Amino acid sequence: MKIFKSNFRILSLLIILLIFTSCNRDGIELVHDGQTDYEIVFMGNATESQYKSAEILQRYLKEISGVELELVDESSQDLNKNKIYVGNIKGEDLKQQEIAIRTENKDLYILGGSDKATKYAVYEFLERYLNCRWYAPEVEKIPVSKIIDLPALDYVYTPDITTRTVHSRLFYDNPDYAEQQKVTQESFPTYVPSARVHTFHKFLPEEKFYKSHPEYFALRGDQRLPTQLCLTNPEVLAIVKDSVASLFEQYPQSKVISVSQDDNRQHCQCDNCSKIDEEEGSASGTMIRFVNEVAANFPDKMISTLAYQYTRKPCKTKPLENVLITLTSIECDRSAPIEEKCADFANDLVGWGKLTQNIRIWDYTTQFTNFFAPFPNIHTLQPNIQLFRDNNAKWVFEQHSNNPSELFELRSYITAKLLWNPDQNFDALLTDFASGYYEEAGIYIKEYIDEIHAKLMEDKDFFLFLYGDPSEAFSSYLSPEMLSKYSQLFDDAEKAVAKKPEILARVKVARLGVDFAELEASRKNFTDRYRLLIPNDEGKKIINPLVTTLLDNFKAITAKNNITLMNEMGFTVTEYLANYMSALEVIRMPNVAMGKKVVTITKPKKYAKEDPMALTDGALGGSSFYANWLGYEGNDMEVVVDLGEPMDINTISLAFLQVTNHVVFFPEKVTYSGSLDNEHFENFGTINNPFPLTKDSKVNDIQFFKLNFEKRNTRYIKVRATNKKTPYWHHAAGLPSWIFADEIIIN
């Protein structure tokens, strides 16, 4: 009985305490039936940014309720009104990015540890408690209600990732939208503008130094090449220090400069550099020692460098306190979270964390060779960002496409949200965007996203590469069966919003990824649905109406939405469509080589399954070397086509691909010859490359090497394409170059 009385007294005290707490922490009624007894108060010494934060709150409260709350500074408060305080009125000890939203004695406090955090706090309040949404620039959903009731609030949050960047022009071009999503508007805040990444060639330009001082550059084999710098050459260090000092003088407001390798793996292997790298257990050894020497001269500035490709593995030497390590995940398989599929990167992240607290993550979220390729990595965004956060990365740069790409608005929004709060409910976040941005069509687009990710997850061996191609997935998540299913989902999505032109336009943009995949599948002549030519009622081959429709839609939608680029190399939508039309012209040409046997005399190395029959299979290569191109690395291409019987011909044409940053060049020349016995060949003629390689050459292009000649009777056609040596000024100097060829046309 005593125990019962004791417990009863404790319970009574808890109830009294709860009642007392409730009385002091009651909810508040900001607006009721179009009336309010609240005013918005900002600090008397408020900055312009703080005042704007108060204005933002005032504007949205009016939009929701129709009531305009008065905006006053501390000295003008009406003692008879309750308050909404915006800004750190009480001077609380808040961290720079900390926000707080609380109610006290019927007043509401929206606080931030800095001007920027105050604005974030306002947007967080509007979103979290009043259900406002900003899905894209100019696309917001604001509820309407004559009543705004709030429960007692006591919300405090400090983001673990303090510099949050999403490489998307939605944020770069729209500062308000960047603030609404709480991301850094600039991709490289406080950096020297001309020295943000890959700076070695800027400090010591090849054009200025290479011929007179080859010793400044990387030793590769027995030759100095201007691919990277020799980091143990004291004159190189002196020049870089002088260049850094000059740039900081030129941009005195800048706090960070990049002293980092160029975008290739061709680092110096001289005795001095190799000795240091061996001692350090990584090629990052010479880099960190070099960068530390530079950083020591600028103690009040930050020197950024890359842990990238050959320097990704941590060394033994600790970076100085003013050295920022930018760790990149470019090699990682995106089919699953980095921790599952890229353990080496995760280990390197831990290793660098033991050496320094100054780590910036440079992560990647799209397929850079094909912006519009369906790229089912959305389910990896959250675990990857959590991995970075859990390893104390305070600065995360998510490199999206910047320019429009597959599901561009959705990806930009979700990535920003996860950088702010990596632990929120991901499925709820995705569902909220889909239903908010695409409205009634959202359920179908969400189903598409779920379906394509589920299909990829079934294929445990698929490597989802940042520089891949849709053709790699035609036996996986982009199979003809799945493509038809995705297309039907988008048909349903369009029907659902057919009477809403603005929303329908958004759905059509979202559909571009599937449309692009269907166009690329049609090049392969997979099925009756996905092929370039089909027979009409008279049996004549005509262009597949599906292809015509897809091309027309792609052209119209990209033009309407100012979408101009297909990949990071500058390959334009206009060029893509022109190349596709050329392919349609080629495929309609009479071609006696179609399906004929091809024997390769020299050995191909990659793609098209190294099968020389790719040259006569009727499936045409696209703008990426994965797409049905037969590749030769460092050797000439020499093949023989057997027409099966002697016949009269007077035209031979063969297409070649150029992707200069991937060391794929047009051949120097192509020679065609013929024979009746496959032993004695007559030279029919040579086509020299009409576009010799220069620094200004088109990065991504397709050219047809066509030869017209007097009619000859022949059975065997020999093609020899002469490979080009990688020029010394190219970032892959010293490495063999590639030739990629597809579809020989003989008439």
UniProtKB/TrEMBL annotation:
GO molecular-function terms, A-Z: hydrolase activity
Origin superkingdom: Bacteria
Transmembrane segments: none
Biological processes per GO annotation: carbohydrate metabolic process
Keywords: Hydrolase
Record domain F5/8 type C: where: 610-727
The protein's name: F5/8 type C domain-containing protein
